[in-house]
Design goal:
The N and C termini of chain A lie far apart (51 Å). By secondary structure, chain A is of the alpha+beta class. Helices cover 52% and strands 13% of the residues of chain A. Chain A has 2 domains: 77 residues, Winged helix-like DNA-binding domain superfamily/Winged helix DNA-binding domain (Arc Repressor Mutant, subunit A); 89 residues, Winged helix-like DNA-binding domain superfamily/Winged helix DNA-binding domain (Arc Repressor Mutant, subunit A). In chain A, α5 crosses α6. In chain A, β3 and β4 form a beta hairpin. Chain B folds into 2 domains: 143 residues, no CATH class; 88 residues, Arc Repressor Mutant, subunit A. In chain B, a hairpin with a 6-residue loop joins β5 and β6. The chains are: A alpha+beta, B alpha+beta. Chains A and B meet through β2, α4, α5, α6 and α9 of A and α5 and α6 of B.
Chain lengths: 178, 316
Amino acid sequence: MDNLKNILEALIFISVEPLTLDKMKEVLDVSSEEEILQALLHLGTEMEESPRAIRLVQTGGGWVFMTKSTFDAPVRKLLQIERRKKLSPAALEALSAVAYHQPVTQIDIMTIRGVDSTHSLHTLLENKLIKISGRKDAPGRPLLYKTTEKFLTYFGLNSLEDLPREEELKKILEEGNT
Amino acid sequence: MARREYPHEEGPLEIFRTEERDFPNEEAPLELLDGREGEELGAADREFPDKDGPRNEAPGTASLEAAVSESGWSEKDGYRIKLDIFEGPLDLLLFLIKKKKIEIQNIPLALITREYLDYLHEREHINLDREAEFLLMAALLIYIKSQFLLPREQPIEPDIDPRKERPDRTGDYERVRVVSAVLRDKEEEQSTIWRRTALNAPLPEQDLDLVEVSLFDLAESFFAMMKRKQSAPQKIIKVKEISVADKTKEIILALQTKGYLDFLEYLDAQETLEEALVAFFCLLELIKARRVMAVQEQLFNTIKVWLRKEPAGEDA
């Protein structure tokens, strides 16, 4: 068990992209999924409880080590990043529309937002938060957009399932109205 | 033209004569004449209710007066259409058609368009906002009419009736706003934690799990390069015939000797714009045929083109 935990630590450490369960199974060929998940859980809590600066995070469909937020400043200094760029409100809205209605056309997004979203979509494409997934089988064969893996990791989501569901949204809306 | 039966027809078209009108908006003259006087009518077989007879007050056939006041329509000094069966601004016409007070088949759109263009030619100044609005409405009308003119195997279903407004998406927008707020919080949260980036990671020569780039990436880098090239002065103009087949062979040969090609470097090295275009086209074809693969090791890194291990059973 401890051995498995250590192997996983090494594998995740060496991976730049979130390490998926499938990949782990492939490398560890014998272990059952259950066993790996158990080991990951152990590893995660152990790191969380220790005074270390690194924690295990499940994001973008896999596991990755990330710094704790306390160490934001020194890390940024090392990477020479002044501030992380944030998405504009317009781009964020367009992205939300894509996330919930994907695959979706530009016209659909425009209908939802009520304003032209060409520029926002372009920004999102450039940032690789969305991608073209094909063309709609409709007059004019408009392009269809959907979110990318990077979209998930950017927002710390493990999968699209992590987005608030219909009921949760309703609740937030109701709270906002009262 | 034979009349078609539409399931959403709620009853005979109500036609109101001018003298019947009692508009809340007096200075807004509206002419709605008997449809039978129109030119391209197919409605001659219809029966119109006597103007003094009992009026059918079913929900779908609310009186025109109510319809007009409901529309919030008011006199604007915009362009007015004059037809035998309707006279007034276009938005009112659109409104009445949506309310099923007027049959779209009875509206000669070509005539409206022609007269409107004449009107535009005559004017020295045009109000862009208003004319854009006109265009939008005219386009809607044309869309609606086209939907009715096209032959259909099945009658139009009520819920896709083109005369209906598109479904209200404000609920969707509310949702999008909430999701935006949620995502913003997450973005905030994520902006303080970091994971390793592959700044210094060595790149293994082969068998690496690279991300295949999309057409969008390829086109993006290509057009960025073309822009650069365009601004560079072209000194020698050569006339050279380049065939796609030759170029494809050349690319494959280069790939076989070198292992990979730097996408931009290769295109940049082409002598002429034309040659670069052909090379780009060939690469796209090769990617499509799955004989080569375009990958990007890192975001913002160059795109590399590799020969696939097993070409799709063709001769190189």
